[in-house]
Amino acid sequence: MEIQENVILKPFSTFKIGGAAQYFSKIKSTEDLVEALRFAQEKDLPVGIIGAGCNLIITDEGIPGLVIKMENQGIAFDSQVVRAEAGLSFAAFTARAHQQGLTGVEWMPSVPSSIGGGIRGNAGAFGGETKDLLKAVQVYRNDRIEEIDVTDLEFQYRYSTFKAKDNTDVILGGVFELQEGSVDDARGEVREFIQKKQANQPTGVACSGCIFQNYEGQILDENLIAEFPELAMFNEKSLIPTGYLIERAGLKGTKVGGVQVSDKHANYIINPGNDARYQDVLDMIAKIKATVKDRFGVDIKEEAVYLHQQMKNR
Ligand SMILES: Cc1cc2nc3c(=O)[nH]c(=O)nc-3n(C[C@H](O)[C@H](O)[C@H](O)COP(=O)(O)OP(=O)(O)OC[C@H]3O[C@@H](n4cnc5c(N)ncnc54)[C@H](O)[C@@H]3O)c2cc1C
After folding, report:
1. How confident is the model over 59-102, as pLDDT tens digits?
2. Strands 179-180 and 102-103
3. Which atom of ligand 1 has the smallest separation from the CA of 158?
4. What is the pLDDT of residue 274?
5. How far apart are CA 226 and CA 273, in angstroms?
6. Is the CB of 249 under 6 A from ligand 1?
7. For residues 25 and 35, what is the distance between their CA atoms, to the nearest angstrom?
8. pLDDT tier at 304 (50, 70, 90 boundaries)?
9. 173-194: per-residue pLDDT in tens?
10. Residue with CA nearest ligand 1 atom 12
11. pLDDT tens-digit series, residues 236-258
């Protein structure tokens, strides 16, 4: 395990924005993690965690403390029970499961994620969610390894207790129970989901997933419902896709500095030249929030995570 100083974080985020971490370490095992955390504790440094870096906003002003990149990627099978380490990608997890004749997680490769990041935010797509086949989560908490039953983690739409402000757990891995099934069919489904995803979201361009959470609530203004009839349907579920609001507020394609609202899906801010600044992202987010508020009267909140706000003594 190596701890480096002054490491630029831009390559570790799919947004391709980010300055230097004071200290940085790639960990390949629980032992590495424990060693890295000890280093931080001795120096009284806050610690931040990067999984696959697909939902992060990283300041380019530099981050004091230790940033740990999770690269523990082990996977072990015991009949239908699968233990996967936090740094393993969703795509590799699904591919390994299929090699073992196990299915049920075909949506996963359509979402770029590590197991740890996916558990934290209960990532999902096409009706599947990380929590669905998850039985327990192994964490490093208060200097000990603990296994927490999934029922104690309050999973909801894109939420688990790992997102709570005072939570300092490092997710070491997940225990899943998969199903036996036709692997040929499952692989076909994976391809189908990936194709659908590629048709509806930006591909081959730097971005950080959906920047905003979908709006949990209703828009009851009759004039707005008359102008945007889909709102009535969204109101029934009290969940309004924020991409819809941003698009209907006329922001698709809008540019601020080096970033742009994607033409394909308005809840994605893209960094087409890989040269955008953190301030461009902040300015764009402020512009989108103000325009959506002005047009629809609702406040939208970020889904993507500001890494510097996640730095905690662990
Ligand atoms: C093109 C694109 C498409 C996407 N589509 C979807 C989609 O369809 N559905 C969806 O749900 N999401 C989607 N996302 C968002 C992203 O894929 C998910 O949020 C993903 O689960 C983030 O996981 P990560 O490993 O990249 O986490 P990161 O972005 O690295 O980190 C996110 C947060 O998790 C924390 N974290 C990561 N690993 C650990 C750990 N081991 N222990 C403790 N904390 C940890 C980090 O500190 C940070 O707070 C998309 C993103 C992109 C770029």
Report:
1. 999 999 999 999 999 999 999 999 999 999 999 999 999 999 99
2. antiparallel
3. 11
4. 97
5. 39
6. no
7. 10
8. very high
9. 999 999 999 999 999 999 999 9
10. 123
11. 999 999 999 999 999 999 999 99
Give distance in angstroms: CA of 119 to centre of ligand 1: 9
CB of residue 7 inside a 6 A radius of ligand 1: no
| Distance separating alpha carbons of residues 13 and 52, to the nearest angstrom | 7
Backbone phi and psi for residue 202, each to the nearest 5 degrees, phi listed first: -65, 140
Domain 204-306 is of which CATH architecture? Alpha-Beta Complex (3.90)
**CB 103 less than 6 A from any atom of ligand 1:** no
Which residue ranges does the chain devote to CATH 3.90.78.10?
A: 204-306
Residue with tokens 């490769």: 109
Determine whether the shortest distance from the Cβ of 21 to ligand 1 is under 6 A.
no
Confidence at residue 278, expressed as pLDDT on a 0 to 100 scale: 98
Residue 69's identity, in one-letter code, is K
What confidence tens digit (pLDDT) does each residue in 29-46 have?
A: 999 999 999 999 999 999
Domain with CATH 3.30.43.10 in the chain: 4-72
| Residue from 24, 30, 55 to probe ligand 1 pocket by mutation (most atoms less than 8 Å from CB) | 55
Q: Whose CA is nearest to atom 51 of ligand 1?
A: 209
In the chain, list all ranges with CATH 3.30.465.10: 75-194
Q: Give the distance (Å) from ligand 1 centre to CA of residue 223.
A: 37
Q: Is 65 in the pocket of ligand 1 (CB under 6 A)?
A: no
CATH code of the region 75-194: 3.30.465.10
Q: How far is the CA of 221 from the centre of ligand 1 (A)?
A: 34
pTM of the model: 0.97
Of 26, 29, 9, nearest in space to 172 by CA? 29
* Ligand 1 within 6 A of CB of 258: no
**Rounded to whole angstroms, how far apart are CA atoms 205 and 245?**
23
Question: How many angstroms is it from 202 CA to the middle of ligand 1?
Answer: 16
pLDDT tier for residue 201 given thresholds of 50, 70 and 90: very high
CB contact at 8 A, 211 and 268: yes
Has domain 4-72 been given CATH number 3.30.43.10?
Answer: yes
What pLDDT, on a 0 to 100 scale, did the predictor assign at position 260?
98
